[in-house]
Amino acid sequence: MAPIQKECDYLVIGGGSGGLASARRASGMYGAKTITIESQRLGGTCVNVGCVPKKITWNAATIAETIHEAKSYGFTVEQTKPFDWTTFKHKRDAYIKRLNGIYESNLHKDKVEYIHGRAHFLSPKSVEVKLDDGTLQNINAKKILIAVGGHPSIPDVPGAELGIDSDGFFELERQPKRVAIVGAGYIAVEMAGMFHHLGTETHLFIRQDKFLRSFDPMIQDKVLEEYERQGLHVHKRSSQQSVTDLGNGWKKLAYTDAGGKGELEIDCLLWAIGRAPEVEDLGLDKTGVKLDKKGHVPVDEYQNTNVDNIYALGDVCDRGFELTPVAIAAGRRLSDRLFGGQSSAKLEYDDIPSVVFAHPEVGTIGLTEPAAREKFGDENVKCYNTTFMDLYFTMMDADGKSPTNYKLVCVGKEEKVVGLHIMGLGSSEILQGFGVAIKMGATKKDFDRCVAIHPTSAEELVTLK
């Protein structure tokens, strides 16, 4: 049976946040005939195995922290049972499934045709889609967006398949008793914090002496200190030799770290060593679209690939910001340019705020201190730092106090703020407002002119000396 033939103005391969945002704007706002293809669940990584379920789990871990801290405020909280991981997981799944339905409904409202299947390029303007029932559809499109996202990487270690990746974290039906997490990026740090505060003995294996290596040194140092103070087991300068099955769900991890060779019996091993673009079976060789050494699709500032009328955005491209709001913003700007007559529409990739939902939270925007010194010269950079105790912790014993650390990186005589790095309670919410100020080019004097709100942590950012 010959494949069904379809035509459209705009074909979006990938139903994640960026692809959906671009498709909906192209169709709903500008009337372009648009088709979206997704082979898994709508919403992509963020909705299904990323931001949303991660933040829900972080909320649960934060509640566990609060229960522990409540006694310092005069409360007696008795837990008759441990945290019910399984019930929590099923309730979280139900919420995500509801979101999947909302995403599909929104596509329908904006008149985007949605096809559930796997796409494969036949040519620069033609794609073959294998549907769930095995039948084929061929789609010819005037413009094609590659927004397929990425997937977690697994290392080449004997027995590595006995572990799970960050996607698998959200499939766990029962809470592990002892977990080994391998990785030094924000995913590893976030999941380590969540496991620990929910009661799992947590071991974090990092390759060097610090984690979050793309962040400001203050953040690296202070989060590491705080994790070790809280009781997480951080294995520095580590590597993994093998994983063996011990039966009954337990494994043995053989490793080396700064202390030498070791073995650890665990009932969960989680690889969080990075992500790779989802391009393996996309058929890009049929299009002439180039890939870089890591398999990402290089794009210019307008999301153009090297092939006319093929575009890419989100985690699959080489822009370096694997963040949902970045993909959404890039997708909308792209549709504004392609179908809305806005020839100069593009996403500005500088001064993008980001947050790590660690324990405590981390927020960052702009340049790190080393990057600023390299770009502008030591003599033109001045940093303002503060370490203090949030008022929340004043009622607690010394071993329960968690410090807050802030840094402003300023440049030039006018002391323009080119970097802001914060760690402590509420950092995610604090950063959003200050991000607007930095995006507008605020200086240290602009910060100083803002009257402080007392007593808050954020007031420290407008009173730094």
Automatic annotation (TrEMBL):
GO annotation terms (biological process): cell redox homeostasis; cellular response to oxidative stress; glutathione metabolic process
Domain FAD/NAD(P)-binding: 9-331
Enzyme class: oxidoreductase
Entry superkingdom: Eukaryota
Annotated PROSITE patterns: PYRIDINE_REDOX_1 (PS00076)
Subcellular location: Cytoplasm
Organism: Viridothelium virens
Gene3D superfamilies: 3.30.390.30, FAD/NAD(P)-binding domain
Residue ranges of domain Pyridine nucleotide-disulphide oxidoreductase dimerisation in the record: 352-463
Family annotation (InterPro entries): FAD/NAD-bd_sf, FAD/NAD-binding_dom, FAD/NAD-linked_Rdtase_dimer_sf, Glutathione_Rdtase_euk/bac, GSHR/TRXR-like, Pyr_nuc-diS_OxRdtase, Pyr_nucl-diS_OxRdtase_dimer, Pyr_OxRdtase_I_AS
Protein family according to the UniProt entry: Belongs to the class-I pyridine nucleotide-disulfide oxidoreductase family.
Pfam family, one: Pyr_redox_dim
EC number from the UniProt entry: 1.8.1.7
Necessary cofactors: FAD
One annotated Gene Ontology cellular component of this protein: cytosol
Keywords: Cytoplasm, Disulfide bond, FAD, Flavoprotein, NAD, NADP, Nucleotide-binding, Oxidoreductase, Redox-active center
Manner of cofactor binding, per the entry note: Binds 1 FAD per subunit.
Bridged cysteine pairs (disulfide): C46-C51
Residues involved in NAD(+) binding: G183, A184, G185, Y186, I187, A188, V189, E190, G274
Designated name of the protein: Glutathione reductase
Active site: H454 (proton acceptor)
